[in-house]
């Protein structure tokens, strides 16, 4: 089996050395070169023909976004961004994912990197191996379909009080979530989202979506009442759960241990919705790993509508694929069909809903 050829692009020689050292320790990976700026990277891509590159989001001479646009136009290839945990870093990274970067990893400071090198190593290796393994042709077709201009869908409103849609996603999920939310009208059911994303990024992600959507999108706050026409995104370092009180639903933000190596975790959100399952739609989108699969199965067993994104339109069919293996889904469909399906189901009264889901 051929090794994965990686080019490391970063203006910091210290970071380049650390990333290269980590990657070269894996027998499946060969760091074929390092580049200190986009111009250096351009020449080394031509000379070394890497399978994938790691790319610093903020670099001198040419910014990472301009370089990425040129790369996706002239030589499309998997790119994993190395992002600083700052507001500027979050904005650039989210823009990079829109352009076509496969994934990103938060780049800690030098001191933090030395202290948590093993964690950084495991995460980086996972992301490199997953990114290089995607079907580039299928991904390109799926992206063209998902990013094609589309209108906000019509909707007559929910027929049931406190009907909610819970969405879980990871790698590739920021764009998949955007595709769904931008199609939803302002009277759509309440949406709860757990996206695997770092602190700072979750708030910027919410703000970015809010500027693009008719539905109101925000980072969830503890004790916030859940209302139709709103989407609530889990903070990047906290679990989002749901509590029912006095006939209303509320966001509960928990600072407990990671679940499935994630905080926020999709399973934590899904598990909190079990008592409300017959009034819930749960959706698992593209993502690496198995977070959300077991929670989705429990929701299905308690009467929820459960939807997984299909393999063809998923960047990585990890999370939805695990749910498929458990038969945790009531429906499997392309990304472009999910928003319409959500609204169609939300528009049913309980009698019709039970008939559609074959619930006795």
Derived from helix and strand composition plus strand pairing, the structural class reads alpha/beta
Instruction: Please compute the radius of gyration using only Cα atoms.
Output: 21 Å
Strand content range = 15-25%
CATH architectural arrangement of the largest domain: 3-Layer(aba) Sandwich
Number of strands: 14
Domain Response regulatory: 5-122
Protein name: Protein-glutamate methylesterase/protein-glutamine glutaminase
InterPro entries: CheB-like, CheB_C, CheY-like_superfamily, Sig_transdc_resp-reg_Me-estase, Sig_transdc_resp-reg_receiver
Keywords: Chemotaxis, Cytoplasm, Hydrolase, Phosphoprotein
Give a description of the structure.
- The chain is α/β, with parallel strands linked by helices and 360 residues long.
- It folds into 2 domains: 130 residues, Response regulator (Rossmann fold), CATH 3.40.50; 193 residues, Methylesterase CheB, C-terminal domain (Rossmann fold, 3-Layer(aba) Sandwich).
- Helix content is 39%, strand content 21%.
- The chain has 14 helices and 14 strands.
- It has a 7-stranded parallel beta sheet, with helices on both faces. It has a 5-stranded parallel beta sheet with strand order 2-1-3-4-5, sandwiched between helices. It has a two-stranded antiparallel sheet with strand order 10-11.
- Helix 3 packs parallel to helix 4, helix 8 crosses helix 13 and helix 10 runs parallel beside helix 11.
- The longest helix is centred in the middle third of the chain and has 16 residues.
What layout of secondary structure does this protein have?
Elements: E1 4-9, H1 13-24, E2 29-35, H2 38-48, E3 52-56, H3 64-74, E4 79-84, H4 87-99, E5 103-107, H5 110-115, H6 117-132, H7 136-147, E6 164-169, H8 173-181, E7 190-195, H9 201-210, E8 216-219, E9 230-233, E10 239-245, E11 248-254, H10 266-272, E12 280-284, H11 293-301, E13 305-309, H12 319-325, E14 331-333, H13 335-346, H14 350-356
Parallel strand pairs: 1-2, 1-3, 3-4, 4-5, 6-7, 6-12, 7-9, 8-9, 12-13, 13-14
Antiparallel strand pairs: 10-11
Helix pairs in contact: 3-4, 8-13, 10-11, 11-12
């Amino acid at each position: 089996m051929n090794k994965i050829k990686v080019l490391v692009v970063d203006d910091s020689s210290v970071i380049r050395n650390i990333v290269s050292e980590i990657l070269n320790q894996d027998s499946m990976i060969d760091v074929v070169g390092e580049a200190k700026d986009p111009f250096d990277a351009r020449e080394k891509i031509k000379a070394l023909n890497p399978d994938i590159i790691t790319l610093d989001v903020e670099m001198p001479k040419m910014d990472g976004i301009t370089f990425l646009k040129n790369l996706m136009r002239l030589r499309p290839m998997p790119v994993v961004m190395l992002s600083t945990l700052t507001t500027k870093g979050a904005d650039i990274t989210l823009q990079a994912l829109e352009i076509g970067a496969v994934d990103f990893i938060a780049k800690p400071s030098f001191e933090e990197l030395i202290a948590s090198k093993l964690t950084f190593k495991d995460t980086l290796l996972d992301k490199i191996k997953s990114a290089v393994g995607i079907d580039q042709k299928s991904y390109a077709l799926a992206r063209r379909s998902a990013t094609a201009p589309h209108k906000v869908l019509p909707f007559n409103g929910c027929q049931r009080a406190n009907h909610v849609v819970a969405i879980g996603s990871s790698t590739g999920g920021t764009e998949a979530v955007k595709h769904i939310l931008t199609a939803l009208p302002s009277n759509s059911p309440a949406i709860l989202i757990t996206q695997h994303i770092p602190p700072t990024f979750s708030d910027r992600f919410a703000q970015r979506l809010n500027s693009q959507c008719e539905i109101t999108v925000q980072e969830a706050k503890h004790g916030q009442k859940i209302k139709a026409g709103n989407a609530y995104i889990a903070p990047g370092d906290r679990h989002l759960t749901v509590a029912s009180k006095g006939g209303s639903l509320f966001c509960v933000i928990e600072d407990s241990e990671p679940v499935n190596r994630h905080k926020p975790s999709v399973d934590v959100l899904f598990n909190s919705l079990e008592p409300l399952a017959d009034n819930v739609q749960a959706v698992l989108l593209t993502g690496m790993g198995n977070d959300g699969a077991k929670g989705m199965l429990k929701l299905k067993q308690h009467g929820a509508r459960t939807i997984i994104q299909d393999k063809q339109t998923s960047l990585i069919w990890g999370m939805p694929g695990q749910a498929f293996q458990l038969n945790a889904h009531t429906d499997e469909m392309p990304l472009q069909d999910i928003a319409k399906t959500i609204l169609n189901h939300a528009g049913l009264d309980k009698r019709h809903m039970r008939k559609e889901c074959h619930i006795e």
